[in-house]
Write a structure and sequence with these properties.
By secondary structure, the chain is of the alpha+beta class. The chain folds into 3 domains: 35 residues; 141 residues, Jelly Rolls, CATH 2.60.120.1440; 71 residues, Phage tail protein beta-alpha-beta fold (3-Layer(bab) Sandwich), CATH 3.55.50. The chain is 26% helix and 39% strand. The strands form 3 sheets. Strands 1, 2, 3, 4, 5, 6, 7, 8, 9, 10, 11, 12 and 13 form a 13-stranded mixed β-sheet that branches. Strands 15-18-17 form a 3-stranded mixed β-sheet, with helices on one face. A two-stranded antiparallel sheet has the order 14-16. A hairpin with a 2-residue loop joins strand 17 and strand 18. The protein is globular. The N and C termini lie far apart (77 Å). Keywords: Membrane, Transmembrane, Transmembrane helix. This is DUF4974 domain-containing protein.
Length: 262
């Protein structure tokens, strides 16, 4: 039978054990929360390994696929290339990228849209996993576009040729075929950004589209005036530095987002 002294020692150890257990649980929780989320995890093939290419904030990055296909990655973009790419010919994309592929078929999957070239083609996709919208543009060749998820309303693919595009929104289960001016795509490819007396907020939206970056504006923009300038192959920081001198704002970049303050 345990003595009174032994019972006292047992009771004294209990709070210590509880504290140790709580500390371990806390550390595990922190580790799990900090563990980076895999890009498009639900689209990963079982047992497959991927090489990830990442775009740089406010800049474009050019890479070459194993088959020689040139790719332009926009800011905040991730492209996953499987080890068996030569066989599967399938890529996973989170962000915005341009592909100019002589070899076909080439399939690019996002969480909303899937594009497959049926012959040599040049096309661009924009679809971020954290957003509900997506766009796809074809500059040359022919590309089949379909939804990457099961649709209750319309699962029929669209065939796109030069000058065709698709607008999609997963939240409302929408995918519409439209036309666009290919000159806009060619200007994007030349990486020549031009402002002609552009209202400030219009210029901000243009920068968001051009660099695939979220920009938040605080304060009164009325005194900023029109934005003017031409920028060739310029990173976002250089553009911001130049226009802030006339518009009169300060900015900070935090976690792949830009905050502008007047």
């Amino acid at each position: 039978m345990p003595t009174k002294q032994a019972n006292t020692r047992s009771r004294r150890k209990s709070p210590f054990i509880i504290i140790v257990v709580l500390c371990v649980i806390t550390l595990l929780s922190v580790f799990l929360l900090r563990k980076p989320k895999e890009v498009l995890a639900s689209f990963h093939e079982k047992g497959q390994t991927y090489t990830t290419y990442e775009g740089v904030l406010g800049e474009r990055k050019k890479i070459t696929l194993p088959d020689g296909t040139p790719v332009i990655l926009n800011s905040n973009t991730k492209l996953l290339v499987p080890a068996d790419f030569a066989k599967s010919r399938t890529l996973l994309l989170d962000g915005e990228a341009y592909f100019d592929s002589a070899a076909h078929p080439l399939t690019v999957k996002t969480n909303i849209l899937t594009m497959t070239s049926t012959r040599p083609a040049a096309f661009k996709m924009r679809c971020f996993e954290a957003q509900q919208g997506a766009t796809a543009y074809v500059l040359s060749g022919e590309v089949k576009v379909s939804k990457s998820y099961h649709s209750k309303t319309d699962d029929q693919p669209e065939m796109l040729g030069p000058g065709n595009m698709v607008l999609a929104n997963k939240e409302i289960d929408l995918m519409e075929k439209e036309t666009y001016h290919t000159a806009d795509m060619e200007a994007w490819l030349q990486d020549k950004l031009v402002f002609h007396d552009e209202p400030f907020m219009n210029a901000v939206r243009k920068l968001e589209e051009w660099y695939s970056t979220e920009i938040y504006v605080e304060g009164d923009v009325s005194a900023a005036g029109g934005i003017n300038g031409e920028f060739s192959q310029a990173p976002l920081t250089r553009v911001l530095e130049e226009i802030r001198q006339t518009a009169g704002f300060s900015y900070k970049i935090r976690k792949n987002k830009v905050a502008i303050d007047f």
